[in-house]
Every structure is written in C-alpha cells, then in structure tokens.
Specification:
heterodimer; A: 7-stranded mixed sheet; 0% helix; globular; B: mainly beta; 5-stranded mixed sheet
C-alpha cells in the first residue's frame, strides 16, 4: 500500500512567518506534487517534481517554493506567509511514466491557517 | 494552460438513481482522464480512469465515457448509494496535471 504522509494535519501561523510543509512517500515514486484545495476552486497545482533536485512550476507558484533533496521527501515552503495562503495543502506522488499518466496517491492534507 | 471545466458543481440524487458528471478540456494533447473521489475529511482517491484509445470503461456501478473529438468526458454512477456521497474531481493532464473544480454529490437515502 502506498503511503504518503504529511508532517502536520493542522497548522496555525502568523503573517510574515516562514512555513515549511513536509511530505514523505514510501513507494519510491519519482513524481511528487503539491496542491492547494479551496472551496469552489478544486485542486490547484503549486509545484511538482519529477526527480531529486528537479522542480517545475504549476499553475499557482507565486509565494511558494519547494525543495526535493531526497527522492522520498518533497517540501513546500512559504517564504513569508500571508492570509491568502490559508488553505488545505495536499501532497501527492506517482510513479515514473510522465507526470500525467499515472495514478496520484495523496497525503491526508495540512490545513494551514495564517492569522 | 489547460482549462478543465466540470459540471455540475453540486448534484443531489435519490438513492438508486443515476448520477452523471461532465468535464470538458482544452488541451488536445491530453490522453489520460482520471476521476478522483474525495469523501468528507479524507484524501482524494482514484476511482476510475480512461485512456484516449478507448471510448468507454466500466467498473461495476461506475463508468467513464470519452469523446475526444468534442473534448469532453463523463462519469456515470448507476444505482447510487449513500456511500457514493463525496466530491468528485476530473482531470485532463497535459504537460501538467489540471483538475476540475469538483462536484459535490449527495445521495439521499
């Protein structure tokens, strides 16, 4: 069974703080993704990575950065958190074969509130 | 980028009735069309997918149809049950992974 875990289920931060969201997968997947989920807007891709140290911008990368130093770990960084980054953040992974063509396995999500 | 439109945004059906959710996409290069189900408080999970070389795929009470010419695909759930209540997302990946905005399905017992 694929397991994707995220470091926190709930997180409360203050405006201007630097925030780290961690994601770990145990299935040796090459591809990893970060999404944010907001009511009425569905799942929007922030960044993805198809290999260690590789990253690609998604649809809404502004205000975020990512790090992938190890294959199993993909971190999302909010350099200076703002209230409009309050959201549910979902991490996902998929096996090699092109990012579009394989099932994505999601983590449980981190609900981030920025005050 | 890719534009994936999903309709309706909410859907209520009586138990035992059918439910249909439709998605349209714009990227002609899309060749893989998955559907994810997200139950309340849980993570999205793949329920069915279809590749562009087939027009329909069925898995028990769930089916997906694809019309590549018209660039739309649909999820069909027959004999709906209360446990089908969830948010359903379509996706039409191109060079990125774009999801639709979701359909909240409620099955009324």
């Amino acid at each position: 069974d694929v397991k994707v875990t995220q470091s926190s289920r709930y997180l409360v931060k203050r405006t201007g703080e630097k925030v780290f969201l961690e994601c770990v997968q145990d299935m040796d997947h090459e591809n990893m993704f970060w999404y944010r989920q907001d009511p009425g807007l569905g799942l929007r891709l922030i960044y993805f990575s198809y290999d260690v140290k590789m990253k690609e911008k998604g649809d809404i990368p502004e205000g975020y950065s990512v790090s992938r130093e190890k294959k199993e770990r993909f971190s999302l960084i909010l350099e200076s958190a703002s209230t409009n980054q309050t959201s549910m953040y979902l991490c996902a992974s998929s096996k090699q074969g092109g990012i579009s063509y394989n099932e994505q396995f999601f983590g449980p999500g981190t609900r981030l509130t920025v005050l | 980028g890719e534009n994936v439109e999903q309709h309706p945004s909410t859907l209520s059906v009586q138990e035992g009735d059918s439910a249909v959710i439709k998605c349209t996409y714009s990227d002609s290069a899309s060749n893989y069309f998955p559907w994810y189900k997200q139950e309340l408080g849980k993570r999205p999970q793949l329920i069915i997918d279809i590749r562009s070389n087939v027009g329909e795929k069925k898995d028990q009470r769930i089916a997906v149809t694809l019309n590549k010419t018209a660039k739309h695909f649909s999820l069909h759930i027959t004999e709906t049950q209360p446990e089908d209540s969830a948010v359903y997302f379509c996706a039409a990946p191109g060079n990125q992974f774009y999801f639709g905005t979701g359909t909240s399905l409620t099955v009324i017992p």
